[in-house]
Amino acid sequence: MKSKFQVDKNGYYGQFGGAFIPELLYPNVKELEDNYLKIMESEEFQKEFKYLLKDYVGRPTPLYLAKRLSEKYGAHIYLKREDLNHTGAHKVNNTIGQILIAKHLGKKRIIAETGAGQHGVATATVCALMNLECVVFMGEVDIKRQAPNVARMKMLGAKVVPAISGSKTLKDATNEAIRDWIGNPEDTYYLIGSVVGPHPYPDMVARLQSVISKEIRAQLLEQTGQEKPDSVIACVGGGSNAAGAFYHFLDDEDVELIAVEAAGLGVYSGESAATSVLGEVGVLHGSKTILMQDEYGQVIEPYSLSAGLDYPGIGPLHAFLNESKRAVFMNATDQEALDAAYELTRIEGIIPALESAHALAVLPKLDFKKNQVVVVNLSGRGDKDLETYIKNLK
Amino acid sequence: MNSLKELFKNKDKNLCSVFFTAGFPQLNDTVSIIKSLEVNGIDFIEVGLPYSDPLADGPTIQHSSEVALNNGINLDIIFDQLIAVKDEVKTPLVLMGYLNQVLKYGEERFCEQCVACGIETVILPDLPMLEYENHYKKLFAKYGISNVFLITPQTSEERIRKIDALTETFIYVVASASITGAKGEISQDQITYFERIKAMNLKSALIVGFGISNKTTFDTVCKYVNGAIIGSAFIKFLESNGVEKIDEFTDGILK
Ligand SMILES: Cc1ncc(COP(=O)(O)O)c(C=O)c1O
Q: At residue A244, what are phi and psi to the nearest 5 degrees?
């Protein structure tokens, strides 16, 4: 039987998903929809994808039993070390996969959106590797707050185009990338950075990131004799690292899946990105999902100290996991995430990305039973956030 | 009968339509813009519903939408403005917005309000054909609302025929692979594309939009199709000249 957590033939997870795109994008999206599975299941793709993940990205990433963290919270806490990937986050799993798909489709020019710059860097990296032209759209506000990643992208040969419309952050960068794609329907491939956008993107990106949970199962089996943990925790911006960490556990309903959103200054402070609490059903960037909007359907600008979680929607898979209660949605404020980041740094010697710190920040809020096995997806490393960490260190 | 359909029966050449953003430049300009366009010989009018994330629109319409939203415009105010001119204005009005606005407002409630304002035609660029067929076709039919589809140079013949079959009024022929915005001249490639569509002998009227900005581009495309829509160029004009001088703009196109 097909899992209910897989997309149906029209690209839906329950009522969420689909492809709500202007006719202008229809041929582009249709081409991808018709080909992505064929390409991804081909031997050639599989071989190259696995090879690059191993020798270029450095996979498998370790599954590390964090002893002191475990002691502190009274559970067996494992960290899935996506921070040790080349370019510093899980994002590269997706960009390696999509760049191979783009090459199979014969595309010459790659466009992408980025918030924190992690996806932009991961895209610029694979474009350098494959010798393809790369244009990254980034909100003008984010360009200012993520200067080191802007410099990295430029050094990698990408053109960084400021998005100056709307609120000048991730959602606007996504709008600009889509507009560029409308204007360049034939030679250009849009390399989306999360499990968002029109079908088939959410499914394609989830499949590419699913390597995370595939490895977790194998590594847990090796280390504990059991391949299933009790809980998996991951942060959710658009939801790609969470989709990857949850993927091979979706049908194992005894595995608790915990998705953590950014609550900014507090869920109801008006400065938050906790979409599952504040959002309602609507259409954003080509898919039906839940999103933060006002009473007239105007998209509300979210807020989080972490630029990677600063998105007004969540991917349609997550909207479905939330609605069906398959996943538990929690949230963490800026301050809770900062505290969790300082704690991990001090007791385990690992500086996490501010996004990943949100996943760690729910540990104090959970009641663990004895010997509970918990996997936290450490989606990225904190180098890009050092300035924020230093500024907020008391 | 749908008033646009009736219009197309009586006139099938040089149809001139103008798009404007409701609530721009001033919140309450909607009524005077519509009246002025009618007096000055515009055949049908597209009322843009300002949206925070207009994916298919270029900088000019993005900007006008942002200004209008800052002016405090919303769907309820727009419907009030349209109801106010309903009896006076005979020119067919078309609403152009994004699907999320309709979803949030409530699909049935949106349709009821359209009926109350005499709106019989809508353009929702991000409503795909599949979703239309599965859901909206029935809903719109219940309220006598006709939906306009877009086609582009990349749309396949098979798909255009399907769109033609689903269309009651006109097909929105997007002039080039591009978002909205005033562009330069009409190229030979574009003419070849218009000729190709025309040669398909479709039942629907063909109206070209996106990038029609002045008399030259309007006259050129009208040689090949039934008419054209001018949007960004009009918005730019309004921004510099205000509502009082609309006749200068329309005269510039029509005379
Ligand atoms: C380290 C890290 N984690 C998480 C995210 C959030 O994205 P997603 O929810 O798609 O995993 C980002 C986005 O930039 C990131 O850089």
A: -65, -40
In B, residues 56-85, which contact A (CB 8 Å cutoff)? Answer: 56, 58-59, 62, 66, 69, 74-76
Average confidence score pLDDT of chain B: 96
Cα–Cα distance, A174 to A167 (Å, whole number): 12
**Residue range of the domain that includes B216:** 13-254
Name the percent of chain A lying above pLDDT 90: 94
Instruction: State the closest ligand 1 atom to the C-alpha of A117, by its place in the atom list counted from 1.
Output: 14
Question: Atom of ligand 1 at shortest distance to CA of A83?
Answer: 1
**In 3D, which of B75, B89, B71 has the Cα closest to residue B3?**
B89
Q: Which of A94, A97, A55, A127 is nearest to A237 (CA)?
A: A94
Total tally of structural domains belonging to chain B: 1
SS3 state of residue A200 = coil
What count of other Cβ atoms lies within 10 Å of the Cβ of residue A34? Answer: 10
Residue A215 reports pLDDT greater than 80: yes
Q: Give residue A14's identity as a one-letter amino acid code.
A: G
User: Which residue's structure tokens are 């001119």?
Assistant: B85
Structural domains of chain A in order of their starting residue, each with its CATH number:
13-52+91-205 (3.40.50.1100), 58-89+209-392 (3.40.50.1100)
Q: What is the mean pLDDT of chain A?
A: 96
Alpha carbon distance B211, B221 (integer Å)? 11
Region B40-57: mean pLDDT is: 96
So what's the ipTM on this one?
A: 0.95
Q: How many residues does chain B have?
A: 255
Question: What is the CATH number for B160?
Answer: 3.20.20.70
